[in-house]
Automatic annotation (TrEMBL):
It comes from the Bacteria. One of its GO terms (biological process) is tetrahydrofolate interconversion. It holds the Pfam family 5-FTHF_cyc-lig. PANTHER family: 5-FORMYLTETRAHYDROFOLATE CYCLO-LIGASE, ATPASE INHIBITOR/5-FORMYLTETRAHYDROFOLATE CYCLO-LIGASE. ATP binds at K14, D15, K16, M17, R18, R143, I144, G145, Q146, G147, G148, G149, Y150, Y151. This is 5-formyltetrahydrofolate cyclo-ligase. Substrate binds at M62, E67.
Length: 196
């Protein structure tokens, strides 16, 4: 009973943090100049890392307007000869990844996000780099996402490298990860790359 109460409280805190993270991102969207400035600093950090330079495969989301803009990352990947994969949500609450090219066709997915039409990849190599989205992050690599658990389920069997691109406002240690939460390997901020 005590353990149930503890995890119930953890869930309540995470729900509050999730709401706070959404508000932070939406407020940042209202200042496009500041958002682009922060994104540019984080992208500079990302593109200089050995994990970016040492991979030929990038897995990344197609961002919504209030999220970190992933379009420049996809374009840089293509420009440097890397393969790009984006997620597609399946009917069984699972997620898969499909390769995209400049000629890929898309359809609206379950959450209104455009998803590619094509064949999914069965598994990624150990050098693949997955850019994992989120709303709030702690310095140990744990994240609070939108609440569907898609990435945590996928990452439980993923063997490659993971990183998240984090605005300074999104960093917080005021919450406790749950047992099913999957940490990322790197947190990339405007100032530094944190290896966890």
């Amino acid at each position: 009973m005590i353990l149930y109460k503890y995890w119930s409280e953890v869930k309540i805190v995470k729900d509050k943090m999730r709401k706070r993270g959404l508000e932070l991102l939406k407020n940042l969207r209202n200042d496009p100049k500041k958002k682009v400035e922060l994104e540019s600093k984080i992208l500079s950090q990302l593109f200089e890392t050995r994990i970016w330079q040492g991979t030929e495969v990038i897995a990344i989301t197609m961002s919504l307007p209030f999220e970190f803009n992933t379009k420049p990352i996809i374009e840089e990947a293509w420009k440097t000869g890397k393969k790009c994969y984006v997620p597609k949500v399946l009917a069984n609450n699972q997620m898969t990844f499909i390769q995209i090219t400049p000629d890929t066709r898309y359809e609206k997915g379950v959450f209104g996000i455009k998803e590619p039409i094509g064949d999914s990849i069965s598994s990624f190599s150990k050098t693949a780099l997955m850019i994992v989205p989120g709303l709030i992050f702690n310095r140990e690599g744990y994240r609070i996402g939108q609440g569907g658990g898609y990435y945590d389920r996928y990452l439980s069997n993923y063997k490659g490298i993971t990183a998240s691109l984090v605005f300074p406002q999104q960093l917080s240690d005021d919450w406790t990860p749950e047992k099913f939460d999957q940490p990322v390997d790197y947190i990339i901020t405007t100032e530094k790359v944190i290896e966890v």
